[in-house]
Amino acid sequence: MANIFVIADTHFGHAKSLSFVDLKGKLLRPFSCVEEMDETMVANWNNTVGNHDTVYHLGDVVMPRPSLKVLTRLNGRKILIRGNHDQGQLKDFSQYFEDVRGAFFFRPGSDFLGGLIFTHIPVHPSCLSGHYRGNVHGHTHCHFVMDGDEPDKRYFNACVERNDFTPVSIDTVKQYFSV
């Protein structure tokens, strides 16, 4: 049986991403160079995702554009939810992704009523009420969407910095929203 995974903000080839820091100034990406970062994420992806699995990449795949070729090395069927850095024409991405979308509504069955919306940038909380159980997103890297002083439980951050630079199983996401 094929599995489903989510991941966001890989930024393959993006050397400047190695200087991203959290609010305390700690580096978010513990790699000595972009090649080490890319190779770690390729290995983590392929050790997790099988050839028949599906991965929803929630945006900001690569920077610069020539780094798209790394996607040929990744297992599984890939679907892109475009992020703010996924600039370019559809043809740039369509050779690597089975589908390219702005968002995706995921209804995993009657056991999980309300469904989830997959986006790059988190949706406004008012967009969730009465429509979706939660929002699986990227864009915020290490940061959570907050509800006062606590992380808002309606949001799941699929960014690589939050998930060991590895795709996350939809079962893990569903369990997060079931609590």
Structure explained in plain terms:
The protein is an alpha/beta fold and 179 residues long. It has one domain (4-178): Metallo-dependent phosphatases (Purple Acid Phosphatase, chain A, domain 2). Helix content is 18%, strand content 20%. The protein has four helices and eleven strands; from the N terminus they run E-H-E-E-H-E-E-E-H-E-E-E-E-E-H. The protein has helices spanning 34-48, 90-94, 125-128, 170-178, and strands spanning 4-7, 54-57, 77-81, 99-101, 104-106, 116-118, 134-137, 146-147, 150-151, 155-157, 168-169. The strands form three sheets. It has a five-stranded mixed β-sheet. A four-stranded mixed β-sheet has the order 5-6-7-10, with helices on one face. The radius of gyration is 16 Å and the shape is globular. The mean pLDDT is 94.
Strand tally is 11
State the CATH superfamily name. Metallo-dependent phosphatases
* Largest beta sheet: strand ordering: 4-3-2-1-11
Percent helix range: 10-25%
Number of domains: 1
Mean pLDDT: 94
List the helices and strands in order.
Answer: EHEEHEEEHEEEEEH
Distance between the termini: 26 Å
Helical segment count: 4
The secondary structure category is alpha/beta
From the spread of the alpha carbons, the general shape counts as globular
Largest sheet: 5 strands, mixed
**Can you identify the CATH class?**
Alpha Beta
Portion of residues in beta strands equals 15-25%
CATH architecture: 4-Layer Sandwich
- CATH topology grouping: Purple Acid Phosphatase, chain A, domain 2
- Residue stretches low in confidence (pLDDT < 50, at least 5 long) are none
Radius of gyration: 16 Å
